[in-house]
Amino acid sequence: MVDHIDRRIIALLRKNGRAQWKQIGDEIGMSGPAVATRVQRLEETGVLERYTVAVNDRALGDTLCAFITVQMRDYAHTKFEAFLKTRPEVKEAHRVSGEPCFILKVVLAVQSKLTQLLDEILVYGHYKINISMAQSI
């Protein structure tokens, strides 16, 4: 069971996944070891799945962001999901109800790579694409 203290710890870890237990403890009025025990429990119960890093894709030269909706030709959803996992430019993939079947967020450096990806998606179904003009939030 996750309580309000666990939620505060989670909120602090979302802001800084590298925060030390003592630092978090100081913020919420607990000792570092007590925070460590709670974090370990959150990991063991699957609430905290992994620690990651946020990367500025633009700083790496990947300036083209597109949202692609895919309507599958058949029921090969599992094969399509396996294909998506091999594509590092696919940052998010959501299987959704209704039409379309999938919504993808892709980030790339050049238009030609986007064209190549779209050609490969055609094996699985039809797509529509929207290019992001700017990230608002």
CATH C-level category of the largest domain: Alpha Beta
String of helices and strands: HHHEHEEHE
Could you report the average pLDDT, rounded to the nearest whole number? 93
Main sheet attributes: strand count, strand direction, barrel closure? 4 strands, antiparallel
DSSP summary, beta strand count: 4
Number of helices: 5
If you compute it from the alpha carbons, what radius of gyration comes out, rounded to the nearest whole angstrom? 20 Å
The CATH homologous superfamily of the largest domain = Lrp/AsnC effector binding domain/regulation of amino acid metabolism (RAM) domain
Strand order of the largest sheet: 2-3-1-4
- Helical content class: 25-40%
Strand content: 15-25%
Give me the CATH architecture of the largest domain, please: 2-Layer Sandwich
- Principal-axes geometry comes out as elongated
The low-confidence runs, each spanning 5 or more residues with pLDDT under 50, are: none
Brief overview:
By secondary structure, the chain is of the alpha+beta class. The chain has helices at 4-15, 21-28, 32-44, 77-85, 111-121, and strands at 64-72, 90-95, 102-108, 125-131.
Please, could you describe this protein's structure?
It is a single chain. The protein is an alpha+beta fold and 137 residues long. It folds into 2 domains: 4-44, Winged helix-like DNA-binding domain superfamily/Winged helix DNA-binding domain (Arc Repressor Mutant, subunit A, Orthogonal Bundle), CATH 1.10.10; 57-131, Lrp/AsnC effector binding domain/regulation of amino acid metabolism (RAM) domain (Alpha-Beta Plaits), CATH 3.30.70.920. The protein has helices at 4-15, 21-28, 32-44, 77-85, 111-121; strands at residues 64-72, 90-95, 102-108, 125-131. β2 and β3 (102-108) form a beta hairpin. The longest helix has 13 residues, at 32-44. The protein is elongated and about 55 Å long. The mean pLDDT is 93.
